[in-house]
Amino acid sequence: MTTDPLSLHWLPRAEDLGAALSAIRTGDPLARFAALAALANSRLDFLQTRRLDRALCEAADAIPAAVPRLRLAVLGSSSQEHLAPGIRVGALRRGLMVDVEVAPYGQWRQQAIDPSSRLHAFEPDAVLLALDQASLLPDQPLTAPASAPSARAAVDAAVEDLATVWRAIRERTAATVIQQLPWSDDPPTFGHGELLVPGSTGALAARLRLGLAEAAAAEGVLLLDVPGAASGPGLRQLGDPALWHHAKQAVSPAAAPWFGDHVGRVLAALRGLSRKVLVLDLDNTIWGGTIGDDGIDGIVLGQGSGAGEAFAAFQRYARRLSERGVLLAACSKNDESTVVEALARHPEMVLRREDFAAFEVSWGDKPAALQRIARDLNLGIDSLVFVDDNPAERAIVRRTLPAVAVPELAEAPELYVRCVADAGYFDAVSFTAEDSARNAQYAANRERRRLEITATDMDGFLRDLDMKLTVGPFRPVDVQRIAQLVNKTNQFNVTTRRYTEAEIRAMLQDPEIVTYAARLSDRFGDNGLTSVVIARRSAVDDQPAVEIDTWLMSCRVLGRRVEDAMLSVIATDTARSGATKLIGRYRPTPRNGMVRELFKGLGFSRRAICENGETEWEMPLDGGPLPPPEHLSVIHQGASS
After folding, report:
1. Is residue 9 situated within a structural domain?
2. What is the DSSP string of 462-484?
3. Are residues 416 and 314 located together in one domain of the fold?
4. Is the same domain home to 405 and 258?
5. For the chain (length 641 residues), average pLDDT per consecutive 10?
């Protein structure tokens, strides 16, 4: 298989797209969307992408509200209209429906700063600034030695000028800003000495990218690193000089599906739709050979051969993903004791048994094993990426579990890292301390499950956990983690409303919004920030009330009655504020059925049932304070203003 960086090489080749589209033109809207998403997970060229996009747009009005959606405005200094289909299909590939508004050619600055522009009328959730280097930075003189300070000053001015545009967009729309890093495909003037001349095109491009990255980190702006993703020969394939000169297309139609996929993965990460678990086959995937036949000393791994070093490099890549918060799981047809011994004893083994949050090593079928992995980790099946060298196993999983991402591996192990990395399944828009501690938290969960098995009763198990719940208003330092939870949590989430970091930061300043963030610790360790509540002050039946807009909880702490403790804090604060009622809402989605009766179980009375299945609940606050569960120690750090 090819690993051309712009070919979507990690996806299987498309079948008969026309016949497949004809077969799904009618039917249940949610199933239709899922079928379109399955077709998007193929290697599509520009024309195929446009064809799938037309089918998606035709179905858009019927797609149910349960499907995650996002509104993206694209502001560019070059022609962008031909990129919209690739963006929509790239997002579809990740289960996200995106409405795209492309600003008129060359009017990116006017659209950003004019409050009456199409951009502001569109009310975007995210704004992509796709700007070429020439629009940001004029040519600089090459005369030495004046070129160094002149180039530095020009880049600094360009970065600060663009930062003012970011701020204007964020202040007027509350949208997340995504800055595309510019690139130059001009041939070097000085050959390999290009970066030694500060005023050269290549040196200016490098300085500009670094300056924009540093400013974006300070301003909370996301990056679309096109030159980094298409480095080397791929960068030259992004554009077509003829199309640039005749149509001002910085990205050629041939590269549009690749470009759209990269935009789609950033948008999906923004909506919490990145994958969470890397599931690895073992034989001929993380080592060469078959452990059952070849034995520990016979497998190919590590120093001594190119293939062995390639397998070790793939293990190191998996471990780096684990260190940034991606969970690892094993799924292999093998004898478990033999595998465990190999992981412990082989001197070149990078991954060890404790690196895997789930371990399905048996002789059963892999789709069933993948379902058990998702269940054991309390995650959706669409959280998994399954990597297997065997094309037959990949085909079976794609057919039986289409929600699982299955990259099309190259035959050579030297290309495994590139295949998985290029696919972008694990793109992140933030990195928190809790991300790096995630594997340790799941290891602690295994210890909790062992305690639960040995406990004689549930109350005794909960008491033995010695839990402490710390509840307080949102803090600026926690906004990234809160945004992660708001955009990722699907099961214990009463409304599944999604908010960007910018919108959450704005809530901290809104006196009508009440916020709660809770951290849970126990005898096995700190679970981190695990529950979030966003509520709004209002009036119901002419009486002051507080309405719960968002209430979610991490799956890691389900079953510990944290919700009872949270309600105790919320109800107490609400009563003290003078409100007489607490209002809750449940908006059904395909994933949050577990909280359908949450409010009823907590003592609320149902007020109304809407046609879309949404229910409204009420709790009067005239019965005195609600005590928290006895097995939980609650530390209340005060309500938000």
Report:
1. no
2. HHHT-EEEEEE---GGGHHHHHH
3. yes
4. no
5. 70 88 81 91 94 93 84 93 96 95 91 88 94 82 68 91 93 90 82 85 90 93 90 68 79 90 92 92 95 89 91 95 92 93 94 93 94 90 96 94 94 93 88 64 62 60 83 92 87 90 89 94 83 94 92 84 92 91 92 90 92 90 80 81 54
* 241, HSE (Cβ side, Cα atoms, 13 Å): 5
Q: How far apart are alpha carbons 267 and 176 in whole angstroms?
A: 10
> Nearest to residue 239, comparing CAs of 227, 252, 257?
252
Same domain, 75 and 215: yes
- What are the E-state strand segments in 363-408? 384-387
**For residues 465 and 526, what is the distance between their CA atoms, to the nearest angstrom?**
12
Count of domains in the chain?
3
Q: What is the pLDDT of residues 332-341, one digit of tens each?
A: 999 999 999 9
Chain centre distance of CA 395 = 25
Contact indicator for 565, 475 with CB cutoff of 8 Å: no
What CATH number should be reported for the domain holding residue 467? 3.40.630.30
Please indicate, yes or no, whether residues 264 and 282 belong to a single structural domain of this protein.
Answer: no
**What SS3 class is residue 584?**
strand
Which residues pair with residue 288 across a beta bridge?
Answer: 300
CA 463 to chain centroid, in Å, comes to 35
Indicate if 147 and 292 belong to the same structural domain: no
The reply to whether 184 and 329 lie within a common domain is no
Q: Is 452 part of any domain?
A: no
Is 282 found in the same domain as 257? Answer: no
Strands 525-540 and 176-180: unpaired
Q: How far apart are CA 483 and CA 275, in angstroms?
A: 16
Question: Which element (helix H / strand E) includes 76?
Answer: strand 69-76
CA angle 221, 267, 80 (to 5 degrees): 85
Q: What angle do CA 585, 586, 590 make, to 5 degrees?
A: 160
- Neighbouring-strand partners of residue 495: none
Q: Residue 415 belongs to a domain with what CATH number? A: 3.40.50.1000
Closest CA to 587 of 33, 29, 34, 65: 65
Mean pLDDT, the chain, whole residue set = 88
The answer to whether the CB of 590 falls within 8 A of the CB of 66 is: yes
The angle that helices 29-40 and 46-59 make with each other, rounded to 10 degrees, is: 170
- What single DSSP character describes residue 13? B
3-state secondary structure of 635: strand
The total number of residues written for the chain in this structure: 641
Q: Say whether 125 sits in a helix, a strand or coil.
A: coil
Judged by phi (left if over 0) then psi (alpha if -120 to 50, else beta), residue 498 lies in beta
**pLDDT at residue 1 in the model:** 47
Q: How far is CA 62 from CA 32, 38, 39, 374, in A?
A: 9, 18, 18, 30
pLDDT at position 236 = 66
Residue range(s) defining the domain that contains residue 487:
460-636
Rg (CA), the chain: 26
Residue 437's closest CA among 542, 529, 301, 513?
A: 529
CA distance 204 to 158: 11
CA dist 516 and 638 (Å) reads: 9
pLDDT recorded at residue 115:
87
Instruction: Report helix, strand or coil for 380.
Output: coil
Structure token digits, residue 30: 């949610």
Candidates 83, 25, 99, 29; CA nearest to 55 is 25
**Dihedral, CA atoms, 44, 47, 50, 55, nearest 10 degrees?**
-80
